[in-house]
Amino acid sequence: MCSASWTPRVWCSSSTLRWRPPGCRWRGINYLYIYCLWVSGEFKGKGYGKHLIEYCLADARAKGKSGVCMLGAEKQKAWLSDQAFAEKYGFETVDATPDGYRLLTLSFDVTKPRFVKNAKVKAIENQELTVYYSSQCPYIHQSVDLVRKTCEELEATCILIPVDTLEKAKALPCVFNNWAVFYRGKFVTVNLLDAAALKRLLKQ
Asked: For the whole model, what pTM was predicted?
């Protein structure tokens, strides 16, 4: 199934789990944060997801963490981990933004993290297409290239901002997994955009 070793960042052809200390997007820094948890296609239903999440929880306990958290939404987003699956293991919503993004947490003690205040601002001064991104996800760089090329074809301005320091992460005016899109000064999505979705957005 997977030849990769079980480490805090694992991805292979059939399943993926990546987690690390969050430290910046919410209060509650003694938590581990799951950036990505998925099992693909024919490998679903074979218990791989169960093994992945149980390993993550065991790793958090072994490191003396207060718990594990992840980003979700009222309506499941394509590029967010399956929150219904996480809820089966005791994850619960401890905070939410007005537009429906949720901070899900499995706490080992009485503490509960919260989004920082600026995560709920969801607005920037730039009116052009603006994308904040990090390198946590192996799909990010191809998405950055797609946005750049599509905007060049459409002769549209785009601003691509790497989130590569703690200071930048703390200053973000939105929820953030690995990717956040703003257009006309407003937060749009955390989903990666294909060319068709990007063109529809730029027509608005």
From this structure: 0.76
